[in-house]
Amino acid sequence: MKKIILVLLFSIPILLNCQAKTKQENIKVLFQLMQTDSVVEKMMNSMLPMLTNSMSQPKDSTAKVQLDATMKKMTQVMMVITKRLINEDMTALYDKYFTESEIKDLVTFYKSQAGRKMIAVMPDLNKEIMMILITKYIPEIQQMLKN
User: DSSP character for 135?
Assistant: First the structure.
């Protein structure tokens, strides 16, 4: 009897670990379906020109070349950080906030026609939301702060 109890005690953590791996694998599948890498890359590519335009433009060609090189390096660094964010931090957060069943439901949604459309339009939708925020609401906030 003691042997059976010991075997069960050692088996439970192993079984729980297998379930966690399954959930982690489903989260990675979800991220692939959501095209998280691509969505973030498109968002970054649409934000960089806005960031560059908001900065004071260099007067001479040497400063322009330096700014371009800095922006290129920043883009590369941000892409590395983004991959780590997705593969490490976001995976842990999805594991924390969603049950395995909810992850499976999300996988099912993103495999559907509506889910695929959401993925397709999300970068443009986010870009338009950002433009509305910048052009419509930021000036309002600035005006309120002046008063």
Answer: I
Distance (Å, rounded) from C-alpha 75 to C-alpha 55?
16
65 and 128 share one domain: no
106, 114 Cβ separation under 8 angstroms: no
Contact between 106 and 98 (Cβ < 8 Å):
yes
pLDDT digits 0-9 by tens, 89-135: 999 999 999 999 999 999 999 999 999 999 889 888 988 998 998 88
Domain count, the chain: 2
| Residue among 98, 101, 102, 78 nearest 90 (CA) | 98
- Which amino acid would we find at residue 18? C
Q: What is the DSSP letter of 34?
A: T
pTM: 0.62
Q: Answer yes or no: do 106 and 141 share one domain.
A: no
Q: Are residues 75 and 123 in the same domain?
A: no
